[in-house]
């Protein structure tokens, strides 16, 4: 596995691979890797001759400077996991490499970034779109891999790729979960033992909503109220939002029935966890 910190050597390496007509898969990450990330590496390796994993904690997508500062950084462990997974190349640039000058560019995604995470984290998806577009231009992958846990992020990137005609196929892989159902996330390591035990309430809420709509259509307001009581029964849980929407358009629905998408965000102390599922 080769490790690159600058764009020039990475592009020279990829240029040699593409001369062999090798397909390139890209797995963009912010590091602190877990089995969810490795599942994306495995998916890329199955479909591409060369797999590149980027590790970059992107400052333009953070609203809170302290959140950026405390974001977990575990490069040596990440490299070890990627070597074991058979990743071919890692791109781990410094901030000044990705942003040699303060960026003046912002990307507006219309309604897509004004709801759900976009409502609570203004500017977040503009930062995501900016860094992913940079990575696409640097790596020029044939395929790029994202996890379904960040459902809205994947939708935003798919829209950007379609609207800007990026020649890359976006593959969205299923969410990987711990044995008790908690979605794998780099933020889980911030939970103490009691918070971790209660954090499974996110998964249980998804299950409860699916069971409720399996029997009949329910008004969104009623189901939200029921789930708020359900989630906050966990003493350490503080609900940020729970929403129901069309999985294609992300438009909110007035009545929830099978096929609707559910997303929620819950705080445990200062740690904010998200999850989603199609009911």
Tags for this entry?
279 residues, Pantoate--beta-alanine Ligase, Chain: A,domain 2, single chain, 6-stranded parallel β-sheet, Rossmann fold, alpha/beta, 3-stranded antiparallel β-sheet
CATH level-two architecture of the largest domain: 3-Layer(aba) Sandwich
CATH class of the largest domain: Alpha Beta
| Tally of distinct domains | 2
* Global outline: globular
Largest sheet: 6 strands, parallel
How many helical elements?
11
What is the CATH third-level topology name of the largest domain? Answer: Rossmann fold
The ordered H/E elements are: EHEHEHHEHHHEHEHHEHEEEE
Ends apart, CA distance between termini: 40 Å
Average pLDDT, all residues: 94
Quaternary structure: single chain
Strand content: 15-25%
Describe what this molecule looks like in 3D.
The chain has helices at about 5-20, 35-45, 65-70, 75-85, 95-100, 115-120, 125-140, 150-165, 195-200, 200-215, 220-230, and strands at about 1-5, 25-30, 50-55, 90, 145, 170-175, 220, 235-245, 255, 260-270, 270-279. It has about 280 residues and is an alpha/beta fold. The protein has 2 domains: about 1-175, 3-Layer(aba) Sandwich (Rossmann fold); about 185-270, Pantoate-beta-alanine ligase, C-terminal domain (Pantoate--beta-alanine Ligase, Chain: A,domain 2, 2-Layer Sandwich). Strands 1-4-3-2-5-6 form a 6-stranded parallel beta sheet, with helices on both faces. Strands 8-10-11 form a 3-stranded antiparallel beta sheet, covered by helices on one side. Strands 7-9 form a two-stranded antiparallel sheet. Helix 7 (about 125-140) crosses helix 8. About 35% of the residues are buried.
């Amino acid at each position: 596995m080769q490790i690159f910190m600058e764009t020039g050597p990475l592009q020279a390496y990829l240029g040699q691979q593409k001369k062999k007509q090798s397909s390139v898969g890209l797995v963009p990450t912010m590091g602190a890797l877990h089995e969810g990330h490795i599942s994306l590496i495995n998916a890329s390796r199955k479909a591409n001759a060369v797999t590149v994993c980027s590790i970059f904690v992107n400052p333009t997508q953070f609203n809170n400077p302290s959140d950026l500062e405390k974001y977990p950084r575990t490069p040596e462990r990440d490299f070890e996991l990627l070597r074991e997974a058979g990743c071919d190349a890692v791109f781990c640039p410094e901030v000044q490499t990705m942003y040699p000058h303060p960026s003046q560019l912002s990307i507006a995604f219309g309604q897509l970034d004004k709801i759900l995470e976009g409502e609570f984290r203004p500017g977040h998806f503009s930062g995501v779109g900016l860094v992913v577009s940079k990575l696409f231009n640097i790596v020029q992958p044939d395929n790029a891999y994202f996890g379904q846990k960040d459902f809205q992020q994947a939708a935003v990137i798919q829209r950007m790729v379609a609207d800007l005609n990026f020649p890359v196929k976006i593959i969205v892989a299923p969410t990987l979960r711990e044995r008790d159902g908690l979605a794998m996330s780099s933020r889980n390591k911030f939970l103490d033992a009691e918070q971790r035990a209660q954090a499974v309430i996110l998964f249980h809420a998804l299950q409860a909503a699916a069971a409720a709509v399996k029997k009949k259509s329910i008004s969104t307001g009623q189901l939200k109220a029921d789930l708020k009581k359900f989630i906050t029964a966990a003493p350490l849980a503080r609900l940020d939002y729970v929403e129901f929407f069309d999985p294609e358009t992300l438009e909110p629905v007035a009545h929830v029935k099978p096929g609707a998408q559910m997303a929620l965000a819950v705080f445990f102390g200062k740690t904010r966890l998200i999850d989603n599922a199609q009911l």
